[in-house]
Amino acid sequence: MVYTNTMMQPNPYELLSKGDVENLLQVTGCSAVLQTPSCQTDCLSERYRSITGECNNRQHPKRGAANIPYSRWLPPEYEDVWGTPRGWDPKQTYHNVSLPPVRLVSQEVLFTHNHNISVDSTLSHLLVDWGQWIDHDLVLTPQSPSTAAFRTGADCSHTCSRDTPCFPIQIPLSDPRYGAQSCMPFFRSAPSCGAGVLPQRHREQLNAITSFVDASMVYGSSTGLASALRNLSSPVGSMALNPQHSDQDLAFMPFLPRLQAHLDPCGPRNSTASGAPEEAAHHVNATSCFQAGDSRVNEHLGLIALHTLFLREHNRLVKELHLLNLHWSPDTLYQEARKIIGAIHQILTWEHYLPRVLGESAMSHLMPPYQGYDPDVDPSIANVFATAAFRFAHVTVQPVVNRLGPGYTANSEYPPLPLHHSLFASWRVVQEGGIDPVLRGLLLSPAKLQTPGQMMVEELTERLFQAQGGLPLDLGALNLQRGRDHGLPGYGSWRRFCGLSVPSNTSELAEILGNFSLAHKFQRLYGTPHNIDVWVGAISEPAPPGGRVGPLLSCLLAKQFRALRDGDRFWWEREGVFTSSQRRHLHAASLSRIICDNSHISHVPADPFSRTESPEDMLPCSHPLVPHLDLSPWREPDTDPSCGPIPRIQSGYSLLCNSVILYRCQSGFELLGSSSISCDQSSQQWSSAPPTCQDIDECEELLSPCPQHLQCLNIPGSFICSEPSSLPAVSIVTAVIVVVGGVAVLLMIMVCYRRYFPKKEELVTARCCQRKS
Q1: Would you call 136 a catalytic residue per the annotation?
Q2: Would you kindly state where each structural domain of the chain is located, as residue ranges?
């Protein structure tokens, strides 16, 4: 169904009227998604970015927000106007040649034996995992919500027929797997709202998370998830923690809502298949998938370690910020810590990660110094970046996950694991030493070096998700199939887009790749360089000295990351986002310091992205090259230069936002008076007196909050439900505490009652628990 002509002229694809289209958008929920949000202009909206990414750009509120289509730098190339992927019909030709099966390309070009790899002499494996960590901050492509073929109803996991949304990967006759299976399951990505029904719209795919580097994988990209991840009863704005398990007194992330054991993708399978110790089989109900801001948190142990690290860092920051600003509310503490962690991610990525990926020369040429926020720059993630360019690091992954004990030594309790045994294995973190062994392994292990003959290890091409049961998948084939599903133009088109030479024959391709044998493989598979899938062509280009990607990837990566920087209203260097003093301290942010502060690891490298040859080269956490983040610039002043002391309020919070003081009350109190006052520069006085916080008497409500057989007694900020007053006064000790949590409140009531309430008629005159009028 395509509505293609704004003049309403007949065309062969126009099956819906304009009214039909509007009705369709309404019933599918697309109308709400396509609506332009209304942006606030108050102080808080200037100070903190939204969880959803909306209104970062006030003129274009959806740019960079969650649940919008990927942007296009080149028009898509599908097999037809309906958005059918290239290669859907094996007989369809492009430049007079049909496309090769993606599994065949993976076998011929990518496959590398686990033992036949070279290691990177300068980069650690933590840099590889940081790349995936940042990818999960930027990109999440939801697959079709339907897992059954639209036409036949066949389950896409078990059919080899191509019927949307099923786009199975065919197994060639020459493949060793052929016979055991004839295809691998593949689900098409979900189309965005309006694809195929709005005027002149190709099929587009969605980015389900915010585009910005804002640590959304920690905090989420929807208000519902962000709220679920918080400890809403925390007085300091903490994130929720796991109540069942800890890592030697350090926190784990909470588990997802309980799944049935046989449906739990993160619990141990059996001791033979998973390599798990025998006792692990008895703990399936005790461990489950972790919950975080990104749904892929459990994919492998390195990701779990980074998620855990930054959860702990948030909770460490809010406690320190609370000591500096006792008048800040839990929400303010949460937002300030979130803002700091977002800035740290930007600094580590642009100043430590990208220079090593692009190389210093390409970095300085393609990423000029920051000149300020540009509202005309679209920071939305491009389809080619999400689907091809930022998947380059898949060819730098080691086949073994090294886990190391204290002193960076081998430990029999948590030995090295084949990569596929570390996938969806959160139970290993809980039962096998926490995150410290994983982090030590990442810090001391080198990245895999990519060369033309050593592309993707067989752990990824032959054993992906094998330990989770079912048929193993092939990551290389999945990447290629996804590019075709998204209608990405071929390798040559993107070379032209970046102003690079476009090969038209084998010799020209060989010159670009610096390898005639690899160019000949491509010619034999694709028939012409013009048909080469962009991902496999891009990762095949040799990198310059000091970099890890070739010219095409340098162009695409730098273009995206520059847009993410220049199009972000909350970029950490932008004037007004942080003070100059705060920026100076943030600039010294160190991933090694974060590891020191949030793990039991006592020695770290000065530069965790560079390869460390031996444990002796590690520095103690007390070393000057591992500096603490000094939060003193975040202390809010107690005095305004013009109006004098800043008025605080009892039982409430305040926040100085520019020249305005914002007030709110603690839970159980209501605000009387204006929620904000400002400093009048001319009179040098505050615009009005500050508000007050009055206790809410829950017991005076029409419907008592207590069960019928219990009596309601109001206390400051809350209430208690007790036995009727005719009973002995000491029975109040057993009262049910409602709304207000915490042992401290219960103890206060016990002490107050025993000390001041020897007789029930003294209730109204008791001083220690006296209500404020």
Answers
A1: yes
A2: 637-695, 704-765
